[in-house]
Amino acid sequence: MTAVQDAPVRAAVPPRQRRRRRGVPPLVWAFLLLPLAVELFWVFWPAMNSFSLSFTSWNGVGAARPVGFENYQRLFTDPIFLTALGNNVIWAIGFGGLSVAGGLALAVALNRPGRGVGLYRSAIYLPMVISLAVTGLFWRVMYQPGGPIDVGLGAIGLGELQQQWLANPDTALYAVLIAAVWRQVGYIMVLYLAGLKGRDPSLEEAAAVDGANAWQRFWKVVMPQLRGVNTVVFAVTVIDSLRTFDIVWAMTRGGPYNTTQLLSTYMYQQGFTLVNLGYGSAIAVVIFLLALAFIITYLVRQARAEEL
Amino acid sequence: MRRSPLFHAVMIPFTLLWLAPIVFVVLVALREFDDIAARGLGAFPASLTLEGFATALAGGKLATALVNSAVVTVCTVVASLALAAIAAYALSRYRIPARRTILLVMLAGNLLPAQILLIPVSRIAQGIGIYDTLFALVVVQVGFGLGFYTFVLHGFMRALPSEVFEAALLDGSGPGRTFFSIVLPLCRPALAALAALATTWVYNDLIWAMTVLQTDTKFPITAALLNLQGGYSNSWNVIAAGSLVAAVPTAIVFFVFQRHFVSGLLVGTGK
Amino acid sequence: MAATELSRRRFLLGAASLGSVPLLASCVGSGVGESGGGQASATITLQSSIQDTAPKAALEEIVAAYTGPGSPVTLNSVATEQFRAQLSTYLSSAEPPDVLTWYAGSVANSYAAEGLLMDLTDLWTGDGACAGFSDALRSLSTSADGKAIFVPTNYYWWSVFYKKSAFQQWGVEPPTTWEEFISLCERLKARGIHPLTNGIGSTAWMSAGWFDYLNLRINGADYHRALLAGQRSFTDPEVVAVLEEYRRLLPYFHPNQFSWDAQQAVTPMVNNEAAMYLVGAFVTQYFPEDQRDDLDFFSVPPINPGVPSAEEAPTDGYFAAAGSDNPEGAKALLNYLASPQAQQEFITKSGSSNLPTSPDVDTSGFSPLVQKGIELLNSTQEITQFFNRDSSDALQTTADAALTRFIADPGDIPAHLRDWQAAAEQVFAS
Question: Do the interacting molecules here have an ipTM over 0.90?
Fold first, then answer.
């Protein structure tokens, strides 16, 4: 897969064509520059503005007041920010870990022919068609005292677990996490299903002949073939866990008393409910840097592995 | 692949439990407001009615909103995939300087939390005069999603066998024709999968709509649904009904595209 | 194409673009070119955050019937939370909506301070619709520099609501003193009924209702206003007294209040499992239709005898954007909306328990509940709005966190107040 482009060509192509190949045709430059321009204008330019906003204090009207690093200094002594940071770590591990593990497991389990299996796959994916805000709204209702979850627990004899799930700071974040994972698993499952379709069954048969059991076959033979999908899944999971906003906002608004704040909800509260745009932008910059750190280290490692 | 009864014995209750929240939404949508006010949301419906759906469709301007959503979604998905495809083509098959960096930079654009861009984008949109238009909503979402689609298509195109390109070159085909007649058809599975994903993302977007639009007749369905929630009081049955109506198009798109979904998002997986 | 040439070119390009970044980057937030209207237009846009079904429908009808300059009016309804988030964008855009719904108080005044609101003094003088409004309303609608910038059109009151039939069934009467109120709660609790209900889950601001009233009854409206303006500290002994009294009430609340919102808190009252609810008059919309006439209220009884009486009455209305391109039409629309006929129509059609601000509205046709509310507000000595409207949304979030945490864990009051004061200081400093 990792063939360097022009290695096979050099041998066969006459000099005149080789020189033309080294240059990039203008049409191809246009192919690249048009999308790049769109992204630069609509994403990077506003982002630059936000970065510079994070060094100001601004309430949306009039001119922004420059305050240097004050917003960042305030961030690191802000108890709510630190709670949000901690929650984001829990979220990344919990939401990321569970949705990937669940998605992979379901993909492997449901990667078989049969009409019934198609129904199962569709059922698992169905939560994705409902928007996050609506999902959050109705899961909040489900967690109500006397609501379906408490009733269900009572029905199976786990009555003493009943409690006010979203009002208890010890359980609220995990309650929201379950709702978010419920929705995300179908999506990851679909990505892995696609990846599994592309694998080579003869390799597994060979491994089986060599005496590898199912577990070893999976980890040593199948997983390496999923490397490409794993990259996409990793990128998607990191992006989605750091961007999670709608579902937490709809379910708890960051409460009870700020114990389920994530960086994104705190950013929204500061930037839009309270219109502290400078401070909100500073939080957003932190989110971005975290995401960038994850992605870059992983991708650089990937790229280096590819070059070997 | 044994078809064991144990498999179904586990999957059926699992699936039913999985679908329980959705069933709950359906039940709420079919109740009357007074029933909910009197007995709470957790109770089983005392009677079934379609009043929620009627109110949602009539008062919530849902029909217009659905049309707006359709227009924005289709335009955004087509434009983003087109731009992503040409960028991925350029980056994957041509020796563009710093191509890996450019790819990472484009992906990084997708990593930015949307909230960080909201205020600047709304001011920029106002500045160039497209504020409060569906065009602005399309353009913003195209820009925002471009990085990820380019990244995925790039991996896919990198994995295409080079013999195909050599054959095209020997035929005297230029980059444009190679792209349209050879690369695009080969990418169809990945494009279909991305189209289905992109549709879900764009259709379910809320914050961009709220940021660049002001007139409520231009709102897409997600924003219109929000309007169903009262300031002080919620008609839960209307909200549930509206949410179900809004979920129908994405469900349809998923089921239609499913074949391509499951058959292709092969990002360089050693073929 | 030598490699070095390419890299030098790229370097220069890179340096140039990096240099221009700070320039471009500070475009947004520089406050330049963000206001200023286009050419005058013939129509008016009314941006509304009114979401509840009946009031929204009522507003639509009233606006459709307007035929003065600037008609037909385009009415845009936006969800309240999003409206709040976008309000500064709306007001500072080049083509802002002409008229907007909002609340009187601190938020309106802060936009006025930035010069974003149209001067509406015309409507408060001569034969303008607001000329006859009460002095309290006038001062509420005036910004710090003496210009009127707000048009109040309706307000509602807060009180302890209960169901008459339920009280009859239990054989109890509404209390007139604080001791009677506490003993009423005790009696109801002994019978297995939750005396008080509330919804502080996703509507955490409801916890400030009792705080406000206890502060008003124990320390008086002047202290309350000063506290909310940052002139007192939350660690004062006066506030400690408020929270101690609040703690006394906590055992009487329904335990599920942590998970409910303001609307769900009504459910136990519907079933006679809970008795009383300190809430705004909008609560009538939450009850099933057949129970609405059963509702009645009594004012929170006085606690300290020397303290002047006070009630909370949040006021809603409209303001106009300074950048509007049809100021004449905007003022005419505001005049129409504030007129007695329009107010009467809105209140009747919306079916909510709102009170008109115009003294010329014929209130005899309103429900007995509303008339009792009017009397309550007319006979009280002080009127405040509500925590957030008297201070700011930012301070409200500190109250939400502090009060919900206190209610969950009322043990160490000084610690809670210290944290609250620290958070409040952040708000006042910015």
Answer: no
Sketch out chain B's domains with CATH numbers: 7-263 (1.10.3720.10)
Question: Is residue C29 very low, low, confident or very high in pLDDT (cuts 50, 70, 90)?
Answer: low
Amino acid at C125: T
Contacts of A134 in chain B (CB under 8 A): 25, 225, 243, 246-247
What whole-number distance in Å separates Cα of residue C84 and Cα of residue C290?
A: 34
* CB of B42 less than 8 A from some CB of C: no
For residue C17, what pLDDT band results from cuts at 50, 70 and 90?
very low
Three-class secondary structure assignment of chain B: CCCCHHHHHHHHHHHHHHHHHHHHHHHHHCCCHHHHHHHCCCCCCCCCCCHHHHHHHHHCCHHHHHHHHHHHHHHHHHHHHHHHHHHHHHHHHCCCCCHHHHHHHHHHHHHCCHHHHHHHHHHHHHHCCCCCCHHHHHHHHHHHHHHHHHHHHHHHHHCCCHHHHHHHHHCCCCHHHHHHHHHHHHCHHHHHHHHHHHHHHHHCCCHHHHHHCCCHHHCCHHHHHHHHECCCCECHHHHHHHHHHHHHHHHHHHHHHHHHHHHCCCCCCCC
pTM beyond 0.90: no
Low-confidence ranges of chain B (pLDDT < 50): 1, 263-271
Radius of gyration of chain C (CA): 25
Query: What six digits make up the tokens of C93?
Result: 């855009």
Mean pLDDT lowest among A1-10, A260-269, B189-198, C141-150: A1-10
What one-character DSSP code corresponds to residue C231?
A: S
* The predicted structure's pLDDT at residue B170: 84
Instruction: Specify whether the CB–CB gap between B18 and A124 falls below 8 A.
Output: yes
CA distance C72 to C85: 27
Residue type at position A120: Y
Q: Counting one residue from A and one from B, how many pairs have CB atoms under 8 Å apart?
A: 292
Q: Chain C interface residues facing chain B, Cβ-Cβ under 8 Å?
A: 6, 10, 28, 33-34, 45, 47, 49-53, 57, 74, 76-80, 82, 85-86, 89-90, 93-95, 97, 261-264, 266-267, 270-271, 280, 282, 285-290
* Single-letter amino acid code for the residue at C91: L
Task: Return d(Cα C201, Cα C264) in angstroms, integer.
Answer: 10
> What structural domains does chain C harbor?
44-154+316-360 (3.40.190.10), 158-312+386-429 (3.40.190.10)
The correct answer on CATH 1.10.3720.10 for the domain covering A65-307 is yes
Kindly report the nearest CA distance between residue B65 and chain A, in angstroms.
15
Determine the Cα–Cα distance for residues A164 and B162; give it in Å rounded to an integer: 60
